[in-house]
Each structure stands twice: as C-alpha cells, then as structure tokens.
Amino acid sequence: MLFSLRRKKRDKPGKRRVHGELAPLGWRARPGAAGPTPEERAFAVGAPDYPVVDGPHYIDVLDQLHRRLKPQWYLEVGAFTGLSLSVARGGYVAVDPMFRLGAPPPIFGQAHLMQMTSADFFASGFLARNAIRPDLAFLDGLHLFEALLDDFIAAERHAAEGGMIVLHDCLPSRDEMTARTWDEAKVRFWTGDVWKVIVILRALRPDLRITILDAWPTGLALIDRLDPANATLAEARDAQVAALRDVSLRAYGLERFFGALDIRSSFTHLQPQP
C-alpha cells in the first residue's frame, strides 16, 4: 500500500518534539496541553489508501511561520473565531462573512476586521487602496475549490515580494471529508474539494514552490515563489472549474493525487537551518 512505509517511519501520535528554541510541536502541544484523545488518534490513521496526518496542530505551525517570517502584513481569509488570527504579530487584515471571535484578537500594529465574503473584500480594492501587500496569507475560507482558487488568485496578485500563501485542508483522510457539502453527522473535519486547487497549481504553475506539511488535522500547503504579475490562473480559471467541478478525489485517483505529493514533517521543515 502506498503509505504503509510512511506510517512506520512517523513519530507516534502524541509524542512531543522539541528542538532548540522552537515551541513544543505535536498534538495540541501548547504548554500544559494534553495528548490526543482516542478519537483523535483514530482519526489520524485515516481510511485505507489515505495518508496519515499526524503532525503538530496547524495553529502551532502557523505560529512558527509567523515567528520565522515576521510578516509586516498578514492576510487571513476565513478568520471566524479568531483562533488562527491569535498568532499574528504584526499588522493584519482578517476577512470573514460572520465573525464569531472567542477572544479579542491581538493588535501589534494596524488591525482590520472585514466582515464580508472574500469575493466582496477583494473586489473592494481595500488592499491596493491602502498600499497593503501581505507577506503572509492564510486562506481558510469556503471549502469549495473554485472559491479557494479565486482567493489564491487575488491573494497572489497583492502579495509582497518574497511572500508566502498558506492553504488549509489540502490533506483529507477519508472520502466523506471531500464532499462539496459538509455532513457533520459523518465527519468532524470537512476539507471539501480544495485538494483540486493543488492539482491546478501543480499543472499550471510549475514556477510556484508548493510544500505540503502534515499539520493536524488536515494539512497545510505552503506556497512561495509567488508572481503577482502572472495571469495564467485567472485566464484558465473557468475552464479548470468546469473540468474538475464534478470530479471526486476517488475518481481522480487517490494514489495519483497523494503519490505526487511530498508530504513533509512539519517539525523537520520548521527546524532552524544550519
């Protein structure tokens, strides 16, 4: 089976891994946090032919990215409760059509909360009007590939030189997670069909560098070498959406999709480089 060897090589779920000055990374491994619940352990194994997604919690990975990249401007689409926004350390623009902030978000510079859809936000011209070019963007909005593709196209167009865009939910671990509608009775975590964006980027934008991390529970894709002037995706958008709209991941081919990805350890990727 495609991932049998990969399973044997991974750390055991729940093991905390510490390196140098990095904050502990692992299962919800903030200070004092408990290990994974039995449900979380079972979830990480995934269905047959799917990869194991057993890395550090994605919020911890985002935290490390903020610490390393130190973005002057951060853009977040799909902020919702503000959990992922909580690790921001500079100026930011957060977009969500219906905020449900659990706590006041941090403010280390300018902070803009834009309660609207991402389509309306990008159409408003707010970023250009305020000369904001994000160094880091986290896209976690509507889990439909055409919406994420539109968000990526717009975010890249406004990206700062040397910027990075991070996509959430690119590593589903069972068929039910990839449906275009979320059935909460079947799955706790819903990725929708955003996996198709990875397919499109790999096919049409070989100039991009795409790094897939095993961040729990549904992976992260780190994309850099951005080119704001590149119009390839915008020009091919409608044709790609029409071609992939009704294609399921299983019909596309699990091994075809996952086998083409180099899924990396979040912890190893974030270690200080010599």
Topology:
Elements: H1 4-9, H2 38-45, H3 58-69, E1 73-77, E2 91-95, E3 111-114, H4 118-124, H5 126-129, E4 136-139, H6 145-157, E5 164-168, H7 195-204, E6 209-213, E7 220-224, H8 232-244, H9 249-252, H10 254-258, E8 263-264, H11 266-270
Could you please describe the fold and organization of this structure?
The protein is an alpha/beta fold and 274 residues long. It has one domain (44-270): Rossmann fold. The protein has 11 helices and 8 strands. The chain has an 8-stranded mixed beta sheet with strand order 3-2-1-4-5-7-6-8, with helices on both faces. Helix 6 packs antiparallel against helix 8 (232-244) and helix 7 (195-204) crosses helix 8 (232-244). The longest helix has 13 residues, at 145-157. Mean pLDDT is 86; it is low at 1-24 and 27-32.
